[in-house]
């Protein structure tokens, strides 16, 4: 087994601090300079349509808001708290029951104040996404209340 | 398709102002704990404060995805009750603007049906915590619906 990369360890540490993501049993699949991929396992508790067993859009949105937000870890030299300004999700086709959903995201423009991020949610094939997502995240900087300590915490364990 | 007896159930739920049996049918509704109540002719949705919905441990604040999910579900329930769709409304797209942090408190939402076409509806959703004039998020969703066949005259 290879040691997880510092970025991967930092991402896992970050995700483990988000209680609702723990409830959904989300995990980090990949984290590198190109972006991040998270996995949302299928579970009966996140079903939105009891007739088809399809996962509710809210759980997909949670996966994607988390993935886009965590993509900032891949693009910034140091940890910064980056709350979501806006998020748009286009549903390409309904997801299938009993299958995990993967959420991948990458930052495509980093400016002084905001970061533009896009991604997609898919089940089997990244080229056949169930949803396309685009969002804008605000850079609050390193010195925001609690942010510095939280950043150090992520780093300390990652290194 | 929504069977006729489910339509009857929906009308009854609205007439009695008791939406709990409807919410129990949707697992995701129970997961986040959404509640719905009648407010005159309108519907008021509530997401009671729950530690399980927290996504930002620093403030702490509700996960942005849960706020979005709460608002999307509110819009879908609103359509189920107010549009006589022959099928369960299916989400086409969803766009949300976050205006303030959703703190670890009760959150409320109200919907506005801006346009109901034959196939697509446009719904706006506003969410707030203490003060309805200080929303924490606004959102807009398009849903695909199916027009009920016009009864023969």
Give a short summary of the structure.
The complex is a heterodimer of chains A (159) and B (153). Chain A is α+β, with helices and mostly antiparallel strands. Chain A is built from 4 helices and 8 strands, in the order H-H-E-E-E-E-H-E-E-E-E-H.
Task: Please give the CATH architecture of chain A.
Answer: Roll
How far is the first residue's CA from the last residue's CA of chain A? Answer: 18 Å
Tally of separate domains of chain A: 1
Which class best fits the helix and strand makeup of chain B? alpha+beta
Percentage of helical residues of chain B? 25-40%
Q: What is the radius of gyration of chain B computed over CA atoms, rounded to a whole number of angstroms?
A: 16 Å
| Share of residues in helices of chain A | 25-40%
Shape of chain B: globular
Pfam families (chain B): 4HBT
Protein name (chain B): Acyl-coenzyme A thioesterase PaaI-like protein
GO molecular function (chain B): thiolester hydrolase activity
Domain Thioesterase (chain B): 62-134
What does this structure look like?
The complex is a heterodimer of chains A (159) and B (153). Chain A is an alpha+beta fold and 159 residues long. Chain A has a single domain, classed as Thiol Ester Dehydrase, Chain A (Roll), CATH 3.10.129. Chain A is built from 4 helices and 8 strands. Chain A has helices at residues 6-16, 19-23, 57-75, 147-158, and strands spanning 27-32, 35-40, 47-49, 54-55, 84-91, 101-110, 114-122, 131-138. In chain A, the strands form 2 sheets. Chain A has a 6-stranded antiparallel β-sheet with strand order 1-2-6-7-8-5, with helices on one face. In chain A, strands 3-4 form a two-stranded antiparallel ribbon. In chain A, strand 1 and strand 2 (35-40) form a beta hairpin. The two termini of chain A are 18 Å apart. Chain B has 153 residues and is an alpha+beta fold. Chain B has a single domain, classed as Thiol Ester Dehydrase, Chain A (Roll), CATH 3.10.129. Chain B has 4 helices and 8 strands, in the order H-H-H-E-E-E-E-H-E-E-E-E. In chain B, the strands form 2 sheets. Chain B has a 6-stranded antiparallel β-sheet, covered by helices on one side. Chain B is globular, with a radius of gyration of 16 Å. Chain A binds chain B through residues 17-21, 23, 44-51, 55-59, 61-66, 69, 81, 83-91, 94, 145-147, 150, and chain B through 25-28, 30-32, 51-58, 62-66, 68-70, 72-73, 88, 90-98, 101.
């Amino acid at each position: 087994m290879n040691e997880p990369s510092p970025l991967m360890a930092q991402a896992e540490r970050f995700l483990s601090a988000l209680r609702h993501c723990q409830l959904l049993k989300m995990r980090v699949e990949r984290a590198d300079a190109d972006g991040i991929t998270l996995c949302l396992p299928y579970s009966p508790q996140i079903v939105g349509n009891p007739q088809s067993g399809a996962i509710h859009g809210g759980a997909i949105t949670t996966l994607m808001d988390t993935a886009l937000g965590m993509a900032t870890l891949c693009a910034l030299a140091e940890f910064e708290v980056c709350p979501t300004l806006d998020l748009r999700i286009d549903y390409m086709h309904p997801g299938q029951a009993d299958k995990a959903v993967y959420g991948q995201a990458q930052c495509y423009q980093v400016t002084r104040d905001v970061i533009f991020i896009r991604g997609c949610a898919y089940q089997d094939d990244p080229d056949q996404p169930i949803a396309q997502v685009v969002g804008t995240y605000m850079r609050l900087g390193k010195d925001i209340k609690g942010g510095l300590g939280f950043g150090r915490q992520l780093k300390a364990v990652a290194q | 398709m929504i069977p006729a007896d489910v339509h009857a159930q929906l009308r009854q739920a609205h007439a009695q102002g008791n939406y709990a049996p409807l919410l129990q049918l949707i697992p995701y509704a129970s997961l986040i704990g959404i509640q719905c109540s009648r407010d005159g002719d309108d519907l008021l949705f509530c997401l009671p404060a729950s530690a399980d919905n927290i996504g930002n441990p620093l403030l702490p604040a509700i996960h942005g995805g849960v706020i979005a999910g709460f608002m999307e579900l509110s819009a879908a329930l609103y359509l189920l009750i107010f549009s006589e769709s022959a099928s369960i409304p299916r989400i086409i797209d969803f766009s949300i603007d976050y205006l303030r942090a959703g703190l670890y408190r009760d959150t409320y939402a109200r919907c506005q049906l801006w346009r109901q076409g034959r196939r697509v509806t446009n719904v706006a959703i506003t969410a707030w915590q203490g003060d309805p004039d200080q929303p924490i998020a606004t959102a807009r969703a398009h849903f695909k619906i199916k027009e009920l066949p016009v009864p023969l005259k």
